Amino acid sequence: MVKYFFSAADGKLEMSDKFIKNCWVDMIDPTDDECEDVAAISGVPEDMLKAALDEQERARSEFDEGCSMFVVDCPILEEGTNGDSYTTLPLSIIYNTNCIVTVSLKGNTVLKEFITGRERIFCNQPVHFALTFMLNNAKRFLYCLKQIDRKNHRIQSEMGRTMKNTEIIQLLDLQNSLVYFSTSLTSNERVHLKLSKVEAVKNHEDYEDLYDDVSIENKQAIETCNIYKNILSVTMDAYGSVISNNSNDSMRKLTIITVLLAVPTMIAGFWGMNMPVPGETGVSFFETGWFWLVVFGTVLLTAAIALVIVKGNPFKRANKTKRRRRKDRRDKNK
Question: Which of 13, 101, 243, 268 could form a disulfide with 94 if both were Cys (CB 3.0 to 4.6 A apart)?
Fold first, then answer.
């Protein structure tokens, strides 16, 4: 899809149905034919137009045939089976003396703000356009990082009540998102440095101030991303230890119960083949009743011991509760 925009007299963008000089060409997942047409009328090399159509394209800058291209990574939200997650996609900003061209595989939130007029840009000032986009893109990274942090806190509160595989997978998705962000922000910083060396920026005081804002926002995003990444890594390690401890405790209880349940089984095995049982010919219950009393008594005793091990000593819990209440009353009287 290809759209053409130009700056009106009041500074707002208006759409055009054809290419005009000093316009902005917004290309979203263009076809080969569309790339050929835009390359022919704008003078931008076709290989530059197709650079950002590769999802794995790294952030970089290129200058060729009077055209300047800056490829930067942008955050996007993706829907998944286990919830939403963040990743990055490349977007290229290309300009020459004829126009500005932006190319991406998907729609970009920052460019939508340009189109709606929330951010004033001028199509005849390509350097200002690129710097403004990079500034808002860095702010977008910060916004997404805040959303990741909020989601992290929500997942932690849910895991505090019940620990399921779904929450753990969501934490892994957040961790992957932070890895993508960290790599993209570092790559974008190198592109920003290249843009700062453009002669138009060095010779324009307003552009220098705008670049300083871009650099500050991007560095803040890098630091924030590293902090959240470290926090999430520590959280994952802590939950791994909790899961391991819970598994060990469950296995200990199951092992004790298994050993205890083996006692009545062993008794039944000893006497089952050698002792007469009620129901046989000539055998009365009174002759073998003591044996059944021993077996049933052992089973009940084993069940009681297993219950105490699994649930804890109820008398001990009651005494602990009484001591805590007495302490609370003493503290209250003081």
Answer: 101
The Cα 185–Cα 225 span in angstroms is: 9
Segment 38-94, tens digit of pLDDT: 888 888 888 888 888 888 888 888 888 788 888 888 988 887 666 678 888 989 898
**Facing residues of 67 across strands?**
64
What is the distance between the alpha carbons of residues 267 and 16, in angstroms, rounded to a whole number?
Answer: 93
More confident residue, 328 or 60: 60
Whether the CA torsion 251, 254, 260, 266 is positive or negative: it is negative
Amino acid at 61: S
Distances (CA, A) of 303 to 108, 132, 254, 315: 64, 73, 13, 17
pLDDT at 333: 64
Contacts of the segment 186-189: beta carbons below 8 A, 24+ positions apart: 186/222, 187/58, 187/59, 187/60, 187/72, 187/73, 188/59, 188/72, 188/73, 188/134, 188/137, 188/138, 188/218, 189/215, 189/218, 189/219, 189/222
Q: How far is it, in rounded angstroms, from Cα 139 to Cα 256? A: 57
DSSP 268-313: HHHHHTTS--TTSTT--HHHHHHHHHHHHHHHHHHHHHHHHHHH--
Those residues with Cβ within 8 angstroms of residue 38's Cβ, 6 or more apart along the chain or in another chain:
2, 19, 25, 27, 30, 44, 49, 101
- What whole-number distance in Å separates Cα of residue 211 and Cα of residue 228? 26
Q: How confident is the model at residue 303 (pLDDT cuts 50, 70, 90)?
A: confident
